[in-house]
Design brief:
Heat Shock Protein 90, 2 domains, globular, single chain, 12 helices, Butyryl-CoA Dehydrogenase, subunit A, domain 3, pyruvate dehydrogenase (acetyl-transferring) kinase activity, mainly alpha, about 10% strand, 3-stranded mixed sheet
Length: about 350
């Protein structure tokens, strides 16, 4: 029924146009370029930015919509994946139906269109995760394993592209802020303190842990709070939040029935000559070597899966301690988006 509905909703000409634009090459945009270009958000620059996004977003969205039609194991036909595909087709249609951007009135109207697109795609990640769970439920595990590499590679590309699309839209929208905070250029903070971001992420993660378990282990942060570097605070917050959340859960569950107080989680922020390194370590028991190769896949989680196929994923972002199976791989993509990386080193029966 879902596939039939999609065919009836979207015209043949639109589908053909999506496939045409899906063949175009997208343009890479660096952090440095966004920072330099956005440092002077004049009307001229905002107009240039909107004209660039008018074409670039259509290409990026079309490429993902085409890929969503060609997934192995009939993943493309799962209800949740069809829902995501419809969001991408709707967004492509909204962009392509917007006429050429010639002046600032056009730019303002277009900015509202892409803001609405960003909101529409808020729940893409959990909805795709639901689609993967639907696949696991309906398909023989042996068949999934045969096509797993292809599914994983697609999801890496898909989620990385989503990060890029949201970064481009968010950066453009934020450049309209009449009174931006000091040292902030759109989404980018030119003097971001990783220690301060880590503190905020820890507070959020401990709050969720306390809500679920009734308590939360302490987290100690070591590093120079005055050290800063240019980065996207929202990206770093997400990565630290996910990693600390995993550590809190592991420690809390390991010491839940123990007479001993749970040991603190430690975060170390180090400024090197080439890299900024953030190390998060815990004593939550670690991961067996046989499980390490699975932790960055989208079909694996060490926790019970909280996804409910009957839940309305179109409203809000319900955050749980664990179970969706995408926290670590998504965090690694955020780290890699601007040239970094995320590595996990585990000591079984001790921690990470």
């Amino acid at each position: 029924m879902a596939a039939k509905k999609a065919i009836e909703t979207f015209s043949k000409s639109l589908i053909e146009e999506v496939h045409k634009w899906g063949c175009f090459k997208q343009t890479g945009v660096s952090l440095r370029y966004m920072m330099d270009f956005g440092s002077k958000p004049t009307s001229k620059n905002l107009l240039i930015s909107a004209q660039f996004l008018h074409k670039e977003l259509a290409i990026r969205i079309a490429r993902r919509a085409v890929e969503l039609e060609r997934l192995p194991c009939d993943l493309s036909q799962k209800p949740a994946v069809l829902k995501v595909r419809d969001w991408y087709l709707d967004s492509f249609r909204d962009i392509r139906s917007f006429s050429e951007i010639k002046n600032m009135n056009d730019e303002k109207e277009f900015t509202e269109v892409i803001k609405a697109i960003k909101v529409r795609h808020n729940n893409v990640v959990p909805t795709m995760a639901l689609g993967v769970q639907q696949l696991k439920k309906d398909v023989d595990p042996k068949i999934i394993n045969q096509d797993f590499v292809e599914i994983h590679q697609f999801l890496d590309r898909f989620y990385m592209s989503r990060i890029g699309i949201r970064m481009l839209i968010g950066q453009h929208v934020e450049l309209h802020s009449p009174n931006p905070p000091p040292h902030v250029v759109g989404y980018i903070h030119t003097r971001m303190s990783p220690v301060e971001v880590a503190r905020n992420a820890v507070d959020d993660a401990r709050s969720i842990c306390s809500r679920q378990y009734g308590s939360a282990p302490d987290v100690h942060i070591y590093g120079d709070p005055d050290f800063t570097f240019p980065y996207v605070p929202a990206h770093l917050h997400l990565m630290v939040f996910e990693l600390v959340k995993n550590s809190l859960r592991a420690v809390e569950e390991r010491y839940m029935n123990s007479d001993k107080d749970p040991p603190p989680i430690r975060i170390i922020v180090a400024d090197g000559l080439e890299d900024v390194t953030i190390k998060i370590s815990d004593e939550g028991g670690g991961i067996p070597r046989s499980g390490l190769r699975k932790i960055f896949t989208y079909l694996y989680s060490t926790a019970r899966n909280p996804l409910d196929e009957h839940a309305d994923l179109g409203v809000g972002d319900n955050v749980t301690m664990a179970g969706y199976g995408y926290g670590l791989p998504i965090s690694r993509l955020y780290a890699r988006y601007f040239g970094g990386d995320l590595q996990i080193i585990s000591m079984e029966n001790y921690g990470e």
